[in-house]
Amino acid sequence: MRTPVEDTILDCECWAVHFEERQVKMPHSYGYRARTRDMFSRDFRTKGHLNATTYLTVYKRGDFVDIKCNPMIHKGMPFKHYHGRTGVVFNVTPRALGVIVNKEVNGKIIKKRINVRVEHVKPSKCQKENKGRALINDTIKRSVRGEELHAKHQRCYESLPQDVKQSIMNKERVNLVRTPIQPRKGYICKLDEELTTIQPAPFSDLV
Predict the structure, then answer these.
(1) What does the record list as coiled-coil region(s) (predicted)?
(2) In the chain, how many H helices and how many E strands?
């Protein structure tokens, strides 16, 4: 016959063995939307109803879009893996878009085709710089050749630097290749006072 103290000790030992066998690791929840508390939270001062621009934006096939899930709209929400990724539109429906997104699976990158509602996407700016630079180069080439400038080329020509416009007027060669940032130029620093050299004093043993 065991005493109550012995029963308590035996229960504690059994619970410890059971806990070691389970090897509980946190987190142990692997749901479809697990660990998305911060990912699917709205930004500061952006909560509330959606504006009309979300639904009036025109998307065409071949456009680049950024996938950003809106937790207020549960319909057509993509999987959490695609949140924050950029894809290409391959299909347009009345309320949703078909987007091609790259995904790494077992060391290989495959093209996934997903359907996402328009509330969870926005036009991407990944090609804004490239298209702007291409327009500037095309405007300069047309101006040097004396070709007709369309409305977009005229607006771009007005924003060109003054030295580039002067080169175009003089029919000079304009370098269209981007150059990296060059190191700072050297210069001579003139001092009004006499230069003083400071150096550490030699060590002398006090013993």
Answers:
(1) none
(2) 5, 5
Measured distance CA(79)–CA(115) in Å, rounded: 11
β-pairing, 121-123 vs 108-117, is unpaired
User: Domain spanning 53-123 has what CATH number?
Assistant: 2.30.30.70
* Residue owning tokens 């909560």: 47
Total-model pTM: 0.69
Sort 129 into a burial class: Cβ within 10 Å, 0-12 / 13-18 / 19+.
exposed
- Beta strands (DSSP E) in 42-184 are 64-67, 86-92, 96-105, 108-117, 121-123
Chain center to CA of 98? 21
Strand positions, DSSP E, 93-186: 96-105, 108-117, 121-123
Here the tokens at position 204 are 């002398």
What does the pLDDT look like over 2-60, one tens digit per residue?
666 666 666 666 655 555 555 667 888 899 999 999 999 999 998 999 999 999 999 99
Helix (H, G, I), strand (E, B) or coil at 136: helix
Q: What are phi and psi of 17, to 5 degrees?
A: -65, -40
Cα–Cα distance for residue pair 42/44, rounded to 1 Å? 7
In the chain, residues under CATH classification 2.30.30.70 are 53-123
Question: How many Cβ atoms are within 10 Å of 1's Cβ, its own excluded?
Answer: 3
